[in-house]
Amino acid sequence: MNKRIVVVLSILAVVVGTPPVSPAGPKNDGRPDGGTLGYGEYGRPSTLDPITSNEMVSLRITELVFNGLVGIDEKQEIVPELAERWEASKDSRTYTFFLRKDVMWHPKEGEEAKPFTADDVVFTYKIMMHPKTTTPLKVRYEFIESVEKLSDYGVQFTLKRPILNALAKFSFKVIPKHGPSHPLYLTREDPFVRQPIGTGPFVVKTITTDREIVLVANENYFKGRSHINKFISKPFADQNIMTQALMFNAIDMVVLVNPRDIPELQGDKRFVLQPYNALSYAFFGYNLRSPLLADKRVRQAFTYAVNRQEVLDSFFNGQGTLVSGPFAPGSWAYNLDVRPLPFDPQKAVALLRQAGFAPGPDGTLQKDGKKLTLSLKVPIEKESEAVKRVVLAFQNYLKNIGVAVKVEFKEWQAWKESVFQEHDFDIIFASWVFDDSADISSLFHSAEIGAWKNNFGGYSNPEVDGLIVESKLTLDHEKRRTINRKLHAILAEEAPYTFLWTLTNYSGYHKKLRRVAIHPYKFFSFADEWFIPAADQK
Amino acid sequence: MARLGVTLVSALIGLMAGAASASDDAVVRAMRLYEQHHYEDAARTLQADLPALNPTSRAAAYLTLGMIYLGNAELHRGLHEAGITVQLDYLKKLVAVRGAGGSRFVNLYLGKTLLENGNAGEATKYLERFSAQRGLEPRYKAIAGASLGLSHFLGKNAQAARAQWATVDTADPEVQMALAAAYSQAGLKDRDPVGMGDAALKKVGSSPSSRMLENLLTVYARAGLTDKSLELVKLADLKAASYTEALGETKTISFYDVAALGDLAAMYRQASVRYLEKAAADAQIKPTADYYLGAAYAEAGEVELSLRATGAFLSVANAPLPQRNRARVRYATAQYLQGRRGEAMAVWETLAQGQPAEPGLLAEILLGCARAKAGCASIEPWATRAAEAGEGRKARSLNIALGRLYLLRGDHGRAVAYLEAGRDKSNKNRIESNDPVMLVNLAAAYYRGRQFSESLEIYFEMSKHFPVVRRIQEAMQGMYAMEHKSAGDVKIF
After folding, report:
1. Would you say the ipTM is above 0.90?
2. Which of the listed CATH numbers 3.40.190.10, 3.40.50.300, 3.40.980.10, 3.30.460.10 matches domain A24-64+200-277+505-538?
3. CA A250 to CA A257: how far, in whole Å?
4. What distances in angstroms separate CA B79 from CA B196, B226, B260, B280, one per listed residue?
5. A125–B contact, CB cutoff 8 A
6. Distance between CA atoms of B12 and A529, rounded to whole angstroms?
7. What fold does the segment set A280-503 form as a domain?
8. Given A77, A329, A441, which is nearest B456 (Cβ)?
9. Residues B184-236: pLDDT tens digits?
10. Which is more confident, A4 or B193?
11. Residue A266 is nearest to which of B250, B426, B488, comparing CB atoms?
């Protein structure tokens, strides 16, 4: 082969065959690179991928590791991520995304990094919607009719109908086609969910024997290498210890400060407290499959029986506010006319009588010879002193009206299996955290009853189903708001949960961390911009 | 100012000869509520006890009431400003929705809100658009007519205003009341808005609508009928919508009139001045009353009166130094507003340099300077350094003042950072622990930065004590619903 031909072939190989070389490198913004950020988490994630997870601990990790086609910036604007631009058809049913050509997947161990292409986008959507995939995301993407690869760097989604905020929905995280071991679906057994690869600013490096997750900066991140070298997620079984770890410099950041520790941190000039996560609330959720809990009067009685304000004041120093329904008070959907039910144990007893329960020989209520004895399952990660006290108080309040509750603490994964897979519980204690959409459809629509779906209690009400569907179909913001206010009122009355409170949610971090912006829901969305001055780097 | 006030009044009570212990209790009880920013409860408690107090204690009670109403006036002024901003944003979004889902009433309320914001020209356009719609109920067309007349009047077209008002048929007491309110807002005392309002109220009997009560509040507040205004507020459901428009089974829009927030602020200002003036009639209490009167007049925009009252306080030889310094700041602010800028700046700078250890005074200087719309360029760096060096609670007021300064400048990120530094995070939304004016400022900063949920959280807690904030909450929820961008995610933990 003569020299000229070799040169021409080499050029062709670059143009056609070889993946584009990422121009990524340092950000060159004058801020220093380096340093390690150790952050305290209140639990261990069961999975590290964005598809199978339905918990906050995982969400935070996936935010560091993956990207969506689009992102949402601090000003609530849709910004390009994996897609450098997009076009929407006039009828708002077709969205065409033009993908960046400079994005590489994190390399799998022992392999070369592969380029990100349209195949990965199509693959992610298909695997997300596959019936065998374990995910709570299907309900969110049922509005998509089809997805089509237009080219290696072009992909088109066709919607069944136009929807509100359609573009924001394309912020779902994209996973690599060459990632999961099964080409069609993803389950929690797939090795990918514990050792994922993404396109994001950090690469999952190792999971230590202490279950710490070590992530290192992605040198080829398409937005420029993140300033901080290493993130280490450190799980704490007890929130009480987490703040102490921060105070003694064992970690640099706490994702959620125990409300009791806020005064101590606020008084210490080394730290910054930043509020976030306003859209969350705690609840006792009921399994409506249990004949004992099927009657709404029983569930209402439980809410009347618990002095929620007293519990909030006693165990959380009053650092929160009672909620009356399925939305947080900071949400656009909260119905301001629905007041929390008052503490009224006499009313509770009367409701239980109306529901056919009468005291048995030992004082416990019973109906048709069956005692009103219930199991309450609590994840062990919630086993902080305050939570223990809450569940014991609940047990005691219910005992006062003749209801026996057995409290059982379970390890996080086992608890999730009991609740979401086996539905083997009567009552659970947990919290939901919402993004700005305040979307409760996966929690209360009857189509969301089933294994690993969010309607764990099996709540079913045709009126609620109808309103949820209408809310999803409408393109009218005010109509959607009115519908959600109605849903709030109905669910407050139906009491599938005893809605408890929204707590004061603060993250705490050391002042050496600079340019810290925390996404109110996803937390680490802007973490690649954070930096530590050279003098403070460990 | 609350803590300082409690100390002052407690000291006064101790000094006052012959004060009975029961009456001390009444004032102290009210003071405690005032310190917790429970203004309504504080005033109600003390007003109820007032007739039973002996003359000596009554002066202290007047002083306390003056302070309580002053606090409430400042808060409602803040709410009024916040309410106009949020309502205008929301209504402008709504008015852009045309066609089947569009509101018929949004033009009316946008027009009224623009009027409240001083945009008479723009208001006219929307009010005319509202009135031009076919099939309107005559009542609402007439109500809009009253506002339209006002917008002409405020737009310096008195002839058009009179012509417009002449077309308004006042047979309906609702309409009569709306017209009385419009006359009040135009300052037309010769039209006897008070007589018109009272007559309209008499016609409807015992169950006036919230809309009527709000219009009557406008009339009374602008006529300076403080007692009648205060009584009226007790009857009104301040969280009630002015109008709820049903657009099908699953769409309703509630409209609120933000003018009520301004009227409440005016009413509390008047009440504050009135009680402080009464307190000042007592020789022993006069210096303290003058101190607060200076602030109350400043709040009312009465610069000359503020100068006079503050000057009277400063002429007292043994006034405590912290209050004296604050009074000097206020005096300088009034001077600046009168055009004596050099003198004012010299006082601010001297005090700022001389008292670096007292962040509270620096905060007052910064706020005075901001209120006067002075540059603050020389003072701000001292304040920033002092805030950074300051420890916890002590530096709180300074951080808050810096936050307010940045909010005024439109730097919402810095405003949030400083206001958060001044916030008691252990009870982040509780008015007992945080000055509600600061919370309103913080909510405004978060709102501007599109962190709607943080802002709504603040108002949610505040609404438990001040139901009138519903008119901000509803509009903000509407903005949030329209503006947020998110995928619909939910996670368990």
Report:
1. yes
2. 3.40.190.10
3. 15
4. 29, 20, 10, 29
5. no
6. 56
7. Dipeptide-binding Protein; domain 3 (3.10.105)
8. A329
9. 999 999 999 999 999 999 999 878 999 999 999 999 999 999 999 999 999 89
10. B193
11. B426
